[in-house]
Amino acid sequence: MSKWTAKSLCDYISSRPELLAVTKKYPFRITSHVASLIKHPGDPLWLQFVPDSRELENDGGYEDPLGEESLSPLPNLVHRYPDRVLWIVTSECAAYCRFCTRKRLWNKKVHIDQRSIRDVVEYLRHNKRISEVLVSGGDPLLIRTTKLREFFSAIRRVKHISVIRVGTRLPIVSPQSITRKKMDLLREFQPLYVMLHINHPSELNDPVCEVLSRMADCGIPMASQTVLLRGVNDRAEILRELFVKLLALRVRPYYLLQADLMKGTSHFRAPISEGLRIMFELRHRTSGLAIPHYMVDLPEGGGKIELTPSFIEAVCENRVIFRNRLGKPAFYPLFHGEKRVLRRLLLPRLE
Ligand SMILES: *Cc1c(COP(=O)(O)O)cnc(C)c1O
Ligand code: SF4
Q1: Do the strands 303-307 and 293-298 form a parallel or antiparallel pair, or are they unpaired?
Q2: 3 state SS of 96
Q3: Ligand 1 pocket check: which of 71, 74, 86 to mutate, most ligand atoms within 8 Å of Cβ?
Q4: Are residues 324 and 294 located together in one domain of the fold?
Q5: How many domains does the chain have?
Q6: Are residues 50 and 79 in the same domain?
């Protein structure tokens, strides 16, 4: 049994002025579920949810690392790609991850009223290329079912929107909050994908697995996003265990995300070279279905870029030379004149 509770963690923080100072800027919030999973200070759950004095350091990071504010045609609507928009419907979460990219919102109330719903619908109607709306936050599933239904219905009033995505960590940090009513709602608005945020296999305890199974039984398609975090999950064995477990729970691992350049979170960052090395180790040792894409979300709104370890050694006049994971070379023939195109598509210019 864990000795930690939400209350004992609050007391722990209150008795340490340097941590208390952090929570003045970036509040502390945890669920009793997550608190009970903490085994000792510094373990993967502690690191993710308990404040750290380094959060106040000026480490050169950004307040809004993805430049979301400048890509918002309306308040709380981020439009970066032609066919998808991100709708931030709340700033609240049941538990706050210390490395969060949207920490700038934690002290801001995001309130979506009838007027802003109308504005969003209007915007979607006028932008016919948008086919998908990502409902995010904060954690949208924290919102009352009746209110959430208004958001989803509004989106469904726009005929050219085919898919809704809902980003949430609630099934992981508070499985008991995923009520029958919430599940019915998610089913009512299919095709609707639930995008879970989950970083370590210890987050998948029995109550969490149970709720994920019920969601899958309900017919709710699910995928997961994992942030690569130093000291938490930056080892191939840990991530492999996580991804294989998720796959068995009918959650498709979607993205492994390089940590964003959020101010005061540099202690969480693992180097890109480490992420690539992990991806290299996963490949061929793990079901392809359990391997996510490794993504960097570029600073200042540059967008997401996939990083893949390369198994290509050279592009020659009439063939590509590969080297497999055991270092064994192999060749594949090229069509006449294909070399230039392939070089441009495959090989980076190294400085
Ligand atoms: C990540 C993101 C998306 C979704 O990108 P996918 O690669 O389709 O998952 C859409 N809009 C914004 C603003 C995003 O940050
Ligand atoms: S669940 Fe997502 S939005 Fe909420 S604190 Fe964690 S990273 Fe931020």
Answers
A1: antiparallel
A2: coil
A3: 86
A4: no
A5: 3
A6: no
Note whether 130 and 232 are same-domain residues: yes
In this structure, are 169 and 202 located in the same domain?
yes
Take atom 7 of ligand 1 and give the residue whose Cα is closest: 304
- Could you tell me if 318 and 247 lie in one domain? no
Provide the pLDDT confidence category of residue 349 given band limits of 50, 70 and 90.
low
Residue 18 pLDDT level (bands cut at 50, 70, 90): very high
Q: Please give the pLDDT value at position 325.
A: 80
pTM of the entire structure? Answer: 0.96
Annotation says 218 is catalytic? no
* pLDDT tens digits, 286-329: 999 999 999 999 998 899 999 999 889 989 989 999 998 888 99
Which residue range(s) make up the domain with 122?
A: 69-306
Question: 51 in ligand 2 pocket by Cβ < 6 Å?
Answer: no
Both tokens of 114, joined, read: 């009838």
In this structure, is residue 152 part of a structural domain? yes
Q: Which of 80, 214, 250, 277 is catalytic?
A: 80
**Kind of pairing between the strands at 312-315 and 222-227:** unpaired
What's the CA gap between 209 and 182, in Å, rounded?
17
Q: Tell me, what's the pLDDT at 1?
A: 55
CB 88 within 8 A of CB 138: yes
